[in-house]
Design brief:
By secondary structure, this protein is of the alpha/beta class. It is 46% helix and 19% strand. Helix 9 packs across helix 12 and helix 10 runs parallel beside helix 11.
Length: 463
Amino acid sequence: MSRLVIVSNRVPELTSKATAGGLAVALQAALEDRGGLWFGWSGRVSQHGPKSPAICSLGSFDLATIDLTKSEYEGYYKGYANRTLWPLFHNRLLLCDFNARSHQIYRGVNRHFARQLRNLLKPDDFIWAHDYHFIPLADELRRLGVENPMGYFLHIPFPPLETMLALPDGRELVDTLLSYDFIGLQTHRDLKNFTDYVLEELNGTVSADGRVTAGHKSVQVGVFPIGIDTDAFSKTASSQTAKSAKSKLVACRGDQIWMVGVDRLDYTKGLAEKFRAFDALLNDATDCRGKIQLMQVAAPSREKLPAYEKTRSDLESIVGEVNGRFGTLDWTPIKYVRRAYSQAHLAALYRCSRVGLITPLRDGMNLVAKEYVAAQDPSDPGVLVLSKFAGAAEELREAIIVNPYDIDETAHAIRLAIEMPLAERQRRWQVMMDDLLANDVHDWWRSFLHAAQRSASSMAEAA
């Protein structure tokens, strides 16, 4: 097997012993299996940036990181990546900042990363780049003469054709993406959106086996929905730490029915719409008042960006309005906290909650939905209410699927979930759990690498 080189925006702080949960653990497992290198940004901003990467060995693989300068951080990370591509790919055109200077810096950082990475490569390395930060990386490496096979995985959605057409440099961006040898996307919807753009804007073709060609470039594309470490997360939910946390939560819950939402504090997550749906339920169903509580965890995210500051302010206003209108001295409809919790504490919260309310306006996958299912007690599982715009909805079909923009539909779905009989809850949960066990995060990375390298071998034989 060839050595694996992973490239991601941030290189996490890893130890030689992996802990359960998270994409970082899956990629670490891949590197431990194959040996290689994890390369990316250190998370630090320095005045000039180092002349060469800082390298740390973890036994079977190395970590290599470089700093960003302040201007690179502002233009590449805060600018083009998170004020242009993030809202665009999540279909939020009105929040996009189409800034030519930020685009130049984004390309420049990809060029700089490519130069630094080239010096660390071996001839038979397989390079696997991740997410919207590194769309042009393969193109920059090819310009430097790197001929290694390269794969790419997009963790967020690929936008519809009409949305992508709004990006001033869209043709150039997608053309650079075609410099990879293999592309993985989360859902069949993403695959259709991507091929639609190539066909319409780049005058490309798509073969029956999924090979996309435009001009002199040809790339194999496939759907690889990312999973969680299902077995490990299920065990976390039954751990002593989780049991202790659950005991405290059950005492706090009393006789109330809990719904839970766990999201990053992001305008893509549909938190305002979720709160309004709960508001509509309480307004129409007076018998639910005092009996149901929404436990919403919103982990802080990109807090210094204006769109996120406004999202936080808007949510706090809605929560205050709902709690002020319906709350009593001994009941608060929405408990809203802006902080992150450990996997064990989240697993305990999931297991205490009759309903998992996961209603993003657009999401590449949404692993929280899968974690909620994995954490449930098989004898008394909760019900997942899931947005049709989450990638997970393609797999978790036994959830109650809703349109988060339809406030009344979501309110009705909450009522259905609360009143669902035990036998129906168990049936739905078992079907989803079986799927999660059969398609976990380790199956994801293995299937991606197998398909990517099989494609590379086929192309080499054809040449």
